[in-house]
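ESCALATION

Customer reports they have been waiting on this structure for their group meeting. Please prioritize. Original submission:
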Amino acid sequence: MSNYAAYEKFFSPEQAAPVLAILKEHEIPYEFLKIGKTIDAVIAGESLNYNYELKLAPKQFEQVNKLLLNEIQINLDDIDHDYYLFTFTDKELVEILMQPDEWGRQDYIIARLLLEERGIKYSDEDLAHLKNKRLEVLARPEKEGKNMVYTGYILAFIGGFFGVLIGLLLWQSTKVLPNGKRVHTYDERSRKSGRIIVIVALVVFSISLALRWTRFYEYIANISIYERPVVPEMIKK
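Update from on-call: job pushed to the front of the queue and completed.
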């Protein structure tokens, strides 16, 4: 199994080309794979159809983050002032700095430069503090809704395969933070429900399988009894 974790997703190899070029230049190992819909994505209802995924060793996430940011050189005078960030308020630009994972690296740098131009300066220490606060938010486990848990229990009690999948999703699903750290996706209560769903589904499936085999053997036994050839008694001479 690969020790790499998903770093970034792309729609095409062309979109990923600049990032891959920097990784090659700095001799950073990576995996670039064509991907399809995963079970997690299908159940969670992920809508964006990314086709490619870049994977890195988690310990290198921070290094690559810095490299990619340092590679971007922007002069505000060279940017068309119709660019949408120029219409953002100070508060909206600060939100970009607070939530860099939801924006492109270029927009992150432009937002910082625009704030500086407006007299609002964020030092590297300030940005590091914002990043740490954001990581704390992203690391918080999610509380799955009752509908998904109830659906998992129902499917588990009828021996449904998707009951196992939902249970495993709640119990074992993890997410990778922008710094490469892997944490559980769901809170302890949701994970406990997922564990119970998996156990119930497997028990029900095992019982169902045992009953089917029992019926099968009974059927074979009945065939053996009713279709056993009759051997006529030997005629006495």
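Sent to customer with the following note: The mean pLDDT is 87.
Escalation resolved.
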